[in-house]
Write a structure and sequence with these properties.
The structure holds two protein chains of two kinds. Chain A is mainly α. Chain A is built from eleven helices and no strands. Chain A is elongated, with a radius of gyration of 22 Å. The chains are: A mainly alpha, B alpha/beta.
C-alpha cells in the first residue's frame, strides 16, 4: 500500500470558506443516489425484476395464444402477469436499501456525517421510490408490448389506446413502486435483511394465498383489504365479472395498498428517529 | 470543544455510562482511557447522537451534534473502520458522504491521496486489509476539514508503520489547533501521544488530568532487590514502614522507599545486595492500579507479578 510522502497533515485543510459544507435535502438526495447506484445488488435486483416480469408475462401470453380464453379475457392483465413475482423482487430491493445500512454498519457512518435523521431517511426513500418507478415503468411497458406482440398472431391482443389499457400498464408500474415503498418501510422498522424480507413476503404473498382458504363469505369482506389483491386491481383493464369476490375500483384499491405503504413508512420513520442507531 | 454534563446511558440493566461530566479542549490530544467495556465507545456514540442519553447532555461547541447544520466541518469521527458497505468502492463511499454535506467532489480525491489510498480508491472496500480500512475511515473523518476529530481505538490491529502514521497525524492535527479525542485501552500508546487524559472505568470518570499528573498521582515508587538474605531485608523494610512482596524470580519488590533508602538500610544492617533497581512506573501500571477495581471482565489467569500489589 502506498504511504503518504508529504507530512501527515498536509492536505487536510479544505480550500473552502468555513460557511460552506452544509447539510441540505438536495445534497442528501445526491448522496443517496450515489449510494444506490454504487452497489451491484441494485443492478441485479432491477435486472432480475425486468427479466422475470417481461419473461413471465411473455410465457403467460404464449399460453393464452394457444389456449382457450373466455369472453372476460383481459389481454393487458395477461401480459402483466409477471408482476406477481416482480412485486417480491422490488420488495427485496426495498428492504435491502435500508437493511444493508444496518447489516454493514454503514448507518453509523451515515448518521455521524449527517445526523439529521428525518432529512436523511426522506432522501433515501425518495431516491429509492424514483429509481423503482422509472425501472417499473420501463418493465411494465416492455412486458405489455412484448405480450401483445405474442398474442397478436391469435388476434386476442389489445392496444395501448384501448379503454383502461394505458391506466393498467402505468398502474402496473405504480403497483411495483408501492410494493417497493411498503418493503422499504418494513426494512426501516425491522432493520434486518432476513427479517425484513420475511415480513415483506408474508404481507405481500403469504397473506394473499392464505385468504383463498377462507370461506367465500369471509373473502367477500376481507379480499378487498389484502395489500397485493387490492393493489392488483390497478393493473387490470377489465373489471372482474360478477360472481367474483367484490373489490373496490382500480384507484381506490390502489389507494389501500398505498395506505399500507404509508403506515409502514410512517412507523419506520418514527422509530428510526427515536431509536439508537 | 466537547462538553458533557451528567451524561448517563443505560442499556437494560447495564449502566454503560454513569454520570460523566467532562470537557475536551482544542489544541491538544485528549486520550480517553479505560479497560474494555468501560463505556468509551458508548460515550463517543452519545457525543455523535447515535445513541440518546438516558440522562444528562453532551454538546459540541454549545449545541447537540444533531442540531449542527455543518456536521462534517465540525466533527470528523472514526468509530468503527468496518462501518462501510463493502460492496461500494472507497471512492464512492467517500463521495456519498461528501455529497450529503455539499462538499466538492475534488475533496474526495484530496483525502484519498492524503491517506495513501489513491491506487485502490476504485476498488470495493470489501477486500481492504485492516490498515487500509482504517485509512479509509480516517479519510472520511478528514473530508470536511473538521475542527474536532474523534477516533475510537484507531491503532487496533495496525502494524507499527500504521500506528506511527496515525500517531503523527493526530499530533499534527492537534498542533493545528484542532480538538483530538482518541480512545484507547493501550496505555503505552497514550503515554506517547496524549497531552491530557480522561480515564473511565465501569462508565464512571476516574481521572481527568495531564499524563504526568496521572502517573505521579497513581503509581507508587517500587524498588527491585536481589539479596541472599531476603527474609532479613524484608523484616527491616517492613519495620521501616514500607511494603514487600515476592518479585517472582527470586527478587523482592519494595514499595514505599526509594532505591537510596533501600541501599542505606541494607548497608547499615550489613545485608548483601546483588541487585538494586528502581522500577519506573509506567502509564500502563498506573492505569492498571487505578482501574483494577473497575475492570469489568477479569481474565481467569493470574496477574503479572509486577502488578500483583496493585491488583490484589
Amino acid at each position: 500500500m502506498a504511504t503518504t510522502t508529504a507530512g501527515p497533515a498536509a492536505g487536510v485543510a479544505l480550500d473552502l470558506p468555513r460557511s460552506a459544507g452544509r447539510v441540505t435535502f438536495t445534497g442528501a438526495l445526491r448522496s443517496e443516489f450515489t449510494k444506490i447506484r454504487s452497489v451491484r445488488s441494485t443492478y441485479w435486483a432491477l435486472l432480475a425484476m425486468f427479466v422475470v416480469v417481461v419473461g413471465f408475462g411473455a410465457l403467460a401470453c404464449l399460453g393464452a395464444a394457444h389456449g382457450p380464453h373466455g369472453p372476460d379475457f383481459d389481454p393487458a392483465r395477461q401480459s402483466l402477469a409477471g408482476l406477481y413475482i416482480g412485486q417480491l423482487i422490488i420488495g427485496v430491493l426495498g428492504v435491502l436499501v435500508i437493511s444493508s445500512e444496518y447489516s454493514t454498519g454503514m448507518i453509523r457512518t451515515t448518521l455521524t456525517t449527517n445526523p439529521h435523521r428525518g432529512l436523511m431517511i426522506a432522501a433515501k426513500g425518495v431516491v429509492f421510490a424514483a429509481v423503482a418507478l422509472v425501472t417499473s415503468l420501463i418493465t411494465a411497458f416492455t412486458a405489455f408490448f412484448v405480450g401483445q406482440a405474442i398474442m397478436s398472431s391469435d388476434h386476442i391482443s389489445t392496444t395501448i389506446g384501448s379503454p383502461n389499457v394505458l391506466r393498467a400498464v402505468i398502474g402496473g408500474a405504480l403497483f411495483l413502486t408501492a410494493c417497493g415503498v411498503l418493503s422499504f418501510g418494513l426494512g426501516l422498522l425491522i432493520r434486518h435483511s432476513a427479517g425484513g424480507i420475511g415480513a415483506m413476503v408474508g404481507l405481500l404473498f403469504v397473506v394473499t394465498i392464505l385468504v383463498n382458504f377462507l370461506p367465500q363469505s369471509w373473502q367477500n369482506h376481507v379480499d378487498k383489504w389484502i395489500p397485493a389483491l387490492a393493489g392488483g386491481q390497478v393493473w387490470m383493464a377489465r373489471a372482474m365479472p360478477p360472481g367474483n369476490t367484490p373489490m373496490y375500483g382500480p384507484w381506490p384499491s390502489f389507494a389501500i395498498l398505498c395506505g399500507y405503504a404509508a403506515i409502514a413508512v410512517a412507523a419506520g420513520v418514527i422509530f428510526f428517529r427515536k431509536r439508537d442507531a | 470543544m466537547i462538553e458533557a454534563e451528567g451524561l448517563s446511558k443505560r442499556y437494560g440493566d447495564t449502566l454503560a455510562v454513569d454520570n460523566l461530566t467532562f470537557s475536551v479542549a482544542p489544541g491538544k490530544i485528549t486520550g480517553f482511557l479505560g479497560p474494555n467495556g468501560a463505556g468509551k465507545t458508548t460515550t463517543m456514540r452519545l457525543i455523535l447522537g447515535l445513541d440518546r442519553p438516558t440522562a444528562g447532555r453532551v454538546t459540541i461547541d454549545g449545541k447537540p451534534f444533531e442540531q449542527t447544520d455543518q456536521p462534517m466541518r465540525r466533527v470528523g469521527a472514526l468509530l468503527d473502520a468496518k462501518a462501510v458497505h463493502g460492496g461500494r468502492s472507497a471512492y464512492n463511499h467517500l463521495l456519498c458522504l461528501a455529497q450529503s454535506n455539499n462538499l466538492p467532489r475534488r475533496r474526495v480525491d484530496e483525502v484519498v491521496t492524503l491517506v495513501g489510498l489513491a491506487e485502490v480508491a476504485r476498488k470495493r472496500s470489501k477486500g481492504f486489509s485492516l490498515g487500509m480500512g482504517q485509512r479509509l475511515g480516517i479519510a472520511a473523518a478528514l473530508l470536511g476539514d473538521p475542527q474536532i476529530l474523534m477516533f475510537d481505538e484507531p491503532v487496533n490491529g495496525l502494524d507499527p508503520e500504521g500506528i506511527l502514521w496515525i500517531r503523527n497525524l493526530m499530533k499534527a492535527l492537534a498542533a493545528e489547533g484542532r480538538t483530538v479525542f482518541v480512545s484507547s485501552h493501550l496505555m503505552s500508546e497514550m503515554e506517547n501521544t496524549a497531552d491530557h487524559l480522561l480515564v473511565i472505568g465501569r462508565g464512571k470518570l476516574i481521572a481527568d488530568c495531564t499524563v504526568e499528573e496521572f502517573i505521579a498521582a497513581n503509581s507508587q515508587q517500587t524498588v527491585r532487590v536481589r539479596t541472599p538474605q531476603p527474609d532479613l531485608l524484608a523484616k527491616l523494610v517492613t519495620a521501616a514502614g514500607a511494603g514487600v512482596r515476592e518479585g517472582g524470580d527470586g527478587s523482592i519488590v519494595i514499595t514505599g522507599l526509594d532505591p537510596g533508602q533501600v541501599g542505606d538500610l541494607a548497608y547499615d544492617n550489613q545485608v548483601r545486595l546483588h541487585e538494586l533497581a528502581p522500577v519506573h512506573a509506567s502509564l500502563e501500571q498506573a492505569f492498571m492500579e487505578l482501574t483494577a477495581a473497575s475492570v469489568q471482565f477479569h481474565a481467569g489467569v493470574p496477574e503479572q507479578p509486577a502488578l500483583a500489589g496493585g491488583v490484589a
